[in-house]
Design a protein that fits this description.
It contains three helices and five strands. The chain has about 100 residues and is α+β, with helices and mostly antiparallel strands. It has a single domain, classed as 2-Layer Sandwich (Alpha-Beta Plaits). It has a five-stranded antiparallel sheet with strand order 2-3-1-4-5, covered by helices on one side. About 20% of the residues are buried.
């Protein structure tokens, strides 16, 4: 089982820039490019966190990645477990779902 997130946009994403901005070989989750699968045929990125990696350490790795995807690349980020769009007001409930 895994905890899944999608970051999507209506435009094309530069996956090389995203990779340079957020990738690290020691991440406890996977980033999956999803060209054409975002809003209105825009691009998306899937984030898959294996349940055995759903820890506080993974959360600390994930927070800046989500922030960069939202602020620098204009993605809307959705928690597929809870079906909610992530923002300032519900980020703590998202964290609680991840760490259950």
């Amino acid at each position: 089982m895994a905890f899944n997130i999608i970051a999507e946009t209506t435009k094309r994403l530069d996956y090389k820039k995203i990779h340079a901005s957020i990738f690290s070989s020691d991440l406890d989750f996977e980033l999956v490019p999803m060209p054409g699968l975002g809003i209105n045929n825009g691009d998306a990125i899937g984030i898959c966190i294996p349940m055995n990696n759903a820890t506080e350490s993974t959360w600390e790795q994930l927070k800046p990645v989500l922030k960069v995807l939202r602020s620098k690349f204009g993605c809307d980020v959705y928690d597929l477990y809870g079906g909610q769009k992530l923002g300032l007001f519900n980020i703590n409930s998202f964290k609680e779902n991840l760490l259950q």
